[in-house]
Every structure is written in structure tokens, then in C-alpha cells.
Predict the 3D structure of the following.
Amino acid sequence: MTEVLLGQAYSLRLDPKLRSAAQPYAPLGTLYAAAALRARGYDVALFDAMLAASAADWTRRLERERPRFAVLYEDSFNYLTKMCLGRMRAAALAMTEEARRGGCTVVVAGSDATDHPEVYLAAGAEAVVLGEGEATLPELLDALSGRGAAAPREVPGLALRGRAGEVVRTAPRPLVRDLDALPRPAWDLVDVERYRRVWRGRHGYFSMNVAASRGCPYHCNWCAKPIYGQRYAIRGPRAVAEELAWLARAYAPDHVSFVDDIFGLRPQWVEEFAGEVERLGVRVPFKCLCRADLLGERTVQALRRAGCRTAWLGAESGSQKVLDAMEKGTRVEQVRAAARRLQEAGIEVGFFLQFGYPGETLEDVERTRAMVRECRPDDIGISVSYPLPGTPFFRRVEAELGPKRHWDHSDDLAMMYSGPFPTRFYRRLHRLVHAEFRLRRLRAARRPGLRGWAASMYYRAAVPLHVAALRRLARVPHQGIRVLPVALDQQRAAIPSEQSGA
């Protein structure tokens, strides 16, 4: 019998796009929570839903462990958890109800639960952890188990049920400022070899995830921040390099994914990190997400020295008008310059692109396609603008939202408000931009082989068909939301929120 069984609902079996990509990462946030509970003296086990075959796996694990507490702790380092995908919420609620029927006291933590605690409390959760949980969760379990003197209502950072069924929130919980004081994630609870087999079987290498920082202080009005808000905290460069060395000794990953919202927000940190990596001799190839306006020449060279293989940029759009409407705080020329510097340093470049923001025109779409052709990124990720709860963007389009307010899975691509063009337009645009990208990559391949030649012929035929279909769809009468009012101009949006007390 285990005291605490931790789990999470995000599973590849529920997300066709990610299942097809076959790049699973263990739930890092859940592993941090497990380590925090262990440090408090709790006996913990992990149900890792990422590679689970069916919902019955959770039931069987509950029957085997017979835990007193079932903690559904969603991985806040997985950006998809912020999207509150419909299938994942349904899975989390079913897991909550199943654990409750089994006699467990259920606690839930995560982005969706923080935004909508009433949904999880109604499903049978005893409490919802609001925001970061490494300090809140042990204190709550102490209160529920009688180890501590405090009552649950005296524990900061919670949502509880009141006597009349209402949601009662306790005092806010300050965020962890000293991330280096946290115990390392409990990787021993993970079936690492199973992840290794999936990665190497599909890609020929094995990747693990690491967090060097938490949060983002910038102002993109479509970006949800239910856990950290505008706060930002960063670990010491030596501590991160030492964790890489520890992972290399214990698990020998071939590659690392840094899951930070922004890697290297402080350029000096990147240079110090590169120095620590060189000192320890632990240069593991990695990918990360960066802001274009932070990638000066010295920072790019430091990334190269540290082992950066791929730097993803939130390029979003090739139209400055659209970037300004998003309050992104970057300029199109900064994206171009950052891509050029990275490529010259031998670092692959990925572009995240977003279509469908209010006010976007066909000309803006063409500017984004032109930027992709000009910058020649090594990979792209495409989405349509998605109104996430709690964001300024959500509030500005809320009156236009229909009954569908969440995607079912990450490749849904449904427009949930009256966008510049209808959903069919953006789904066709998604196929066009990907076809153009793949065709360019195939043409650049030195030895494409018979399969590559056949794919190249397919995309050569597909691109003009997609273009023609897109032009037809653009002429379909449609009344979308025009440009939305903004609170920050480009210069002010480029200044991060002040971190008092950091």
C-alpha cells in the first residue's frame, strides 16, 4: 500500500498529432511534486499516463497501490496542458471520479484546474492546488493526514468546497523564488527505458526534458499564465549544468529538451551556462525556445558552445501589424536576424507560426509565407489563434465565442470565435504552408532517394491545388472580428514585467 499515488491525465493515446510525432516526454512537473512529497517523508508512486494504453491502466494501478491520496498533478512544463484540451479534461475528471470511488482522497493541480477549480471539485476532488504546488501540496497532505496542526483552510494556495458547495479560496501562495532549493525531479519513478525505446525506434536518439526557469514576464496577449502569471524565476547556471551531468551519468540521454517558456531570458546567464557546461564536460545536444529580440551575437555563440542543436522562435507572423496586435513586443526584422545568426552558428531554427488573429488579412498571411520562404527554418509548428481562459485575448473575443471553447486535441485547429476567415480556410492554409515547407526541404536534400523523389512530386502537385483552394475560400463571404484594441505598443511590449524581490 502506497501513501500517495501521483498521476496526470495527458496521454499520447488521446492526441493523434503528438502520437504520430512519437516524441513523448515524462511529466516533469509531476516528478517535481513527487520529489517534494518524498522530501516531506511521504511514500509515493507514479502513474505515468503519457504512454498508458487505456483508461483501465489507472484503475489497475489504484487497485494495486491502494493509496490513501490520489494526486492528479498535471505537468505545467507541457505547454499543451495550458490549452485545456477537451479530451484531457474528460480524462482527468474520469480519473478523479475513479479514485474517489476507490476510497482515495483526491487532490488536483494544473492549469485547467487552476482556471476552473469548480469543475474538479464537483467531480469529487477534495482540494485543488492553485498554481505552483511544491510547497502547497505537502502542507495540504499534512493537514489532511493529521501530520500537521493546520486545517486545509489554513493552507495557502488552495480551492476547497464550502459548506453550501461553493468554491472557497485560501490565501494566495507566493511562488518559489529559489528554484535551486527544490529537490531534483524523481526520475527513478519513470520507466525511462520505455521512453528510450519509443524515441530510438522512431528517431534514432533518446531525449529527456529539463527546466532551467519558470514563467515568462512578457506580455503576449494570447498566452495563458495560470501557474506563474507575469513572474519569472531562473535556476543558477551551475545547478542546471550539474543536473545535465547527473542525467548523463544516470540515464545517458542523447538529447535534452529545455522546457522553459523562454530559455536564456538573461543573456549573461547563457554565457555562464556555456562556461559551466564546458567546465563539466557535459555538452548534451539540446533544443530550447528563445525570443528573437534576445538573440544577439554573443548569446547565439554561447548557445552554440553550450550544445544547442535547435532553437525555436515564437515568430508567429511575418506581418508587423499582427505582431503588434498580439502585443508580442518583437519585430519581423528581429526574427529574420535571429534566424540568420543561429543558422550561421550551425544551430537549427524552428518557427512557431500563428494564423487567424483578429484583423489578419490575406496580405498578412502572404507576408508570413514569404518570411518562411526567406528564412528557411529547419522546422515549423503551425496553429490558429486560440482564446485561452484568463488571457486578455480571451476577454476581448469572449462575446464572439460559441459553445465550443476548447479543442478536443492539439490538431483540432477549429476557430472558436469569428476569425478573419472561416475554419476551412485555416485548415487548408495549414496544409499549404506545411506542403511548401516539406517541398523546400526535399529539394534541399542531397540524396532524397526514391521515397523522397515521390514525396517531392506529390508536394509539387499539391501546392498549386492548395493555393487555388485557399483563394476560393478567401472569397467566401465571412464577417470576422476586426483589429482589437491593444494596451501596449511595440516598444512597451518589448519590456518584461518588473520582477520585484527577484
